[in-house]
Amino acid sequence: MSTHAQPKGYFLPGPSAYPAMAATGALTMAFGLTFWFNGIPHGDLLFFLGLFFFIFTKFRWFGKTISESEAGKHNLAVDTSFRWSMSWFIFSEVMFFASFFGALYYSRVYSLPDLSALHSKILWPVFTGAWPSVGPAGLIPSIKEAMDPWPIPTINTALLLSSGLTLTISHHALRASHRKNAIFWMVLTLILGFTFLLCQAYEYHHAYEVLGIKLSSGIYGSTFFMLTGFHGFHVFLGGTMLSVVLFRLIRGDFTAEHHFGFEAAAWYWHFVDVVWLLLYVLVYWL
Fold first, then answer.
1. Average pLDDT, the chain
2. DSSP secondary-structure letter at 138?
3. Are residues 119 and 257 both part of a single domain?
4. What's the CA angle centered on 273, arms 205 and 28, to 5 degrees?
5. Domain assignment of residue 38, given as a range
6. Residues 42 and 119 in one domain
7. Which of 21, 91, 120, 163 shows the greatest Cβ crowding within 10 Å of its Cβ?
8. What is the mean pLDDT of residues 149-168?
9. Which of 194, 191, 172 is nearest to 266 (CA)?
10. What is the DSSP secondary structure assignment for residue 63, as one 8-state letter?
11. Residue by residue, what is the 3-state secondary structure of 161-230?
12. What's the structural domain count of the chain?
């Protein structure tokens, strides 16, 4: 159990290779995805290799930061810097998803009407402007039907909203110094979150095998898989964060007054919930 003493001054960590290692892992993942999506051999292997290295680096890096905190090296100034850092990180994620939502908005509100307008009929007479689109030349394999919001997406919405509620209950239990209750509700949050991922995996299989929706299925397929896929990846990252928080809860690292690690993971999880609500409405219903 940590005493969380408040040191004087501002703690400055020494030089570290972890930022460069994390960047290397992320870059490897990006190359792996690019190769994988374009059919280049071993792109999937490269992606998972980068993912493993990235997670390993984060595990070591955050572990060192946790040990510094438990040693009492972090005071209020460090805590404030962590809060600002997490806030800006979540803001960067907001802009990341905004770019994909923007692509969906532009293609549906501007591109489809323009390509189906009278002045475009000379170049693309077969284009109807229907959604999902088969492209202006009609060369994209037709999709049998768009993804329906029922049942899997609606079930997943209920799962994520419920997980946000259980996480909030866990947080309030910790603030009331009821550690066992906090652990119970955190476990329930993780069960709901990873059930969401299992349901999404089933939905992907149905989309690919039954409905014929792929990344190559024009703007509909690309926006659908990029939005839902990256969101699922963020659910996985959030679940990883909460798993570490659960371990630290069991170990007794957090107190009612000192638990920013818990709060940071909770902020991220609630952000993931909000993104899913937007995605659920804009991708599945409209």
1. 89
2. S
3. yes
4. 60
5. 17-73
6. no
7. 163
8. 95
9. 172
10. H
11. HHHHHHHHHHHHHHHCCCHHHHHHHHHHHHHHHHHHHHHHHHHHHHHHHCCCCCCCCHHHHHHHHHHHHH
12. 2
